[in-house]
Amino acid sequence: MDLYRVIEKRRSVRAFMPDEIEFDKIANIIEAARHAPSAGNLQAWKFIVIWEEKTRHAIAELCVRQEWIAQAPVLIVVCAELEAEKEFYGQRGELYALQSAAAATEHLLLAATKEGLGSCWVGAFQEGQVSRLLEIPDKARPTAIIALGYHEGGVAPMVKKKVEDITFFHKWGNRTSDLIAKKHEYYKYLEKILQKGKALLSK
C-alpha cells in the first residue's frame, strides 16, 4: 500500500474483533517503530507488548472509563527512557525523549494500518498506576498505550482541516492567501520593470 494511502486510511479504532493477531504482524509493527527518528539516535524507548487478558483488563481500568480497550487482543505500551536522554542533553532531554517516543508511536500506528489492523493511540491513563502494574522503572515513563486488533465494520471518514487553515509561511499568521497576494505584488513589480525596459529600448 502506498505510504500516502496508509496515512489517509489510518483511523482511531475503538471496536475490535477477538481474533488473535499473528505474531509476525506484531514483529513488523515493532520493527517499524524501531526505525523512527530519535534525538541523537539514542533510541530511548521501550515497547511492552501485552496480550494476557488479565493485564489488558487491568490496564483498561486505569484508562479513565475507556473499557473498550480491554477488547483489543493486543496492547503496546510505549515508554520513553527519560534519563537516557537527560544524561546526554541535560534537562531538555526529557522533552526529546517524549518527542522520540511520539515519533515511534506514529510509526506503530501506520505499520498497524499497513498490516490491516485497527489501532488507537490512548493517552488518557493513570500513569503512576500503569507504571506500577507493568513494573516500569522510575527512569522511564509510559507515554502511550496502543490498542491493536482487527476491527469490526468500517470506520467513518474523518473531517480534517484544510492545508491553508493550518499552514503559515515564514512566520506565524502568514497564510497561503497572504503569500499569493505577495506573489501578485511581485509580478506587478516585474511587469513595471519590463515596461520600463521596453520604453528604454524604443527610444
Care to describe what's here?
With 203 residues, the protein is an alpha+beta fold. It has two domains: 3-149, NADH Oxidase (3-Layer(aba) Sandwich), CATH 3.40.109.10; 163-202. It has eight helices and four strands; from the N terminus they run ααβαβααβαβαα. The protein has helices at residues 3-9, 23-34, 53-61, 82-89, 93-114, 127-133, 163-166, 176-202; strands spanning 45-50, 74-81, 118-122, 140-149. The protein has a four-stranded antiparallel beta sheet, with helices on both faces. Helix 2 (23-34) packs antiparallel against helix 5 (93-114) and helix 4 (82-89) packs across helix 5 (93-114). The longest helix has 27 residues, at 176-202.
Measured as a percent range, the helix fraction is 40-55%
Q: What is the chain-wise order of helices and strands?
A: HHEHEHHEHEHH
Low-confidence stretches: none
Query: How many strand elements?
Result: 4
**How would you state the average pLDDT, rounded?**
90
Number of domains: 2
Distance between the termini: 63 Å
Q: Specify Rg, calculated over alpha carbons.
A: 24 Å
Shape: elongated
Oligomer: single chain
What is the assigned CATH homologous superfamily of the largest domain? NADH Oxidase
